[in-house]
């Protein structure tokens, strides 16, 4: 019997089929790829391209899109600071379930605050014998001007007109950090993280390159090798 | 742009790979099997056996166990009435995501109130051309005396000693309904529902039969036939 969070008298039920068995069934290693960045930075485009590319390679992935989840699981949450944190926490928990189920889970949400992202990363083991990189961040480090220029949802227009407070807060976080010359993510020595910069290529061409980089970085398509003690 | 629940300015992102494509990749039809019943009625045992049996048939399933989720996604929830409702709502939303991802999702939680279960069922389409039964309830209709006799978690002992209020409420729901000769679930004409009664067999033998019944009832292992317009 245990007490966890607000629950008492709850018990852990061991899974009848283990994560390794599910990975073996799917012939793939499961992981979470977490795409973070400003609105308009291309997170959804990248998530969709990555999922499609993985599908053509025979891999099963699933996209957890921040906006889509606000239509369902997170529909009770707004954009206050504590709601944002809870929003990200829940996406992290669900991503963990999908990785446990054997899938390549692609989470795509602004998630500007490192502490929230780090909490999610802490939910999954850092590394084990079969998964070198079970949780990878991808930072869509696009220039703010480019994001505003694209503005696919018209959010920047509304934000500049003072009609969306949350987004302005979010922009400030990024902009202030830039002004302070602080790199807002973990340093490159952290090999669970990957960053991208706009590089002069067209958005479409960059995106294609990003997909291949992520697949290479995460090793998603490395041949699946079940550990000896799993046979 | 839309307003949903407590969120504004959110947009629906179409999935790059559709549910039908994922089902095709997995060679299976996805669905949700929702196991409901008293503590000790055998929900977890059935969920585990079903998941294991499906695995041996090459099917990918995932068990959403009520207690396990209270260690993670639902750790902020207690056992007050509104917390129970929110607990079940979230499990329903996650089950929906897993079914959308192409998996056979097995949810196992007491979920005593029909209105909560019905809300979950309403999240998934009732039927479409590929899935006759995308959401099936399995009611572990075990006699209360048998559940108390088993009492695998020692919860009944605590409840009878007045140490768990929530469980007593839950028992009352079931017992009162029995006293009133009310069948606490939808009538048998509803083909999205399946009920089981203790039938004199041993728990182990019953369980084996239940697994086969569920597989037959849901048609999980019927040959996968992609619809013509999916090719």
Helix and strand arrangement:
The structure is a homodimer of 231-residue chains.
Chain A lengths: L1 E3 L2 E4 L8 H8 L4 E6 L6 H14 L4 E5 H4 L11 H20 L3 E5 L5 H10 L11 E7 L2 H7 L4 H6 L4 H15 L13 E5 L5 H16 L13
Parallel strand pairs in A: 3-5, 3-6, 4-5, 6-7
Antiparallel strand pairs in A: 1-2
Keywords (chains A, B): ATP-binding, Kinase, Nucleotide-binding, Transferase
InterPro entries (chains A, B): APS, APS_kinase_dom, P-loop_NTPase
Pathway (chains A, B): Sulfur metabolism; hydrogen sulfide biosynthesis; sulfite from sulfate: step 2/3
Shape of chain A: flat
Order of helices and strands of chain A: EEHEHEHHEHEHHHEH
Largest interface: A-B, 64 and 64 residues
Q: Order of strands in the sheet with the most strands of chain A?
A: 4-5-3-6-7
Number of helices of chain A: 9
User: Helical content of chain A, roughly?
Assistant: 40-55%
The name of the CATH architecture of the domain at 18-143 and 186-220 in chain A is: 3-Layer(aba) Sandwich
The biggest sheet of chain A, with number of strands, parallel, antiparallel or mixed sense and barrel status, is:
5 strands, parallel
Stretches of chain A where pLDDT falls below 50 for ≥5 residues? 127-132, 175-192
Report, as a whole number of angstroms, the end-to-end distance of chain A: 32 Å
Kindly report the oligomeric state of this protein. Answer: homodimer
What is the number of E strands of chain A? 7
Judged by helices, strands and strand pairing, the structural class of chain A is alpha/beta
What's the CATH superfamily of the domain at 18-143 and 186-220 in chain A, by name?
A: P-loop containing nucleotide triphosphate hydrolases
Radius of gyration of chain A: 18 Å
CATH topology of the domain at 18-143 and 186-220 in chain A: Rossmann fold
Q: What fraction of residues of chain A sit in β-strands?
A: 15-25%
CATH first level of the domain at 18-143 and 186-220 in chain A: which class?
Answer: Alpha Beta
Average the pLDDT over all residues of chain A and give the rounded result.
75
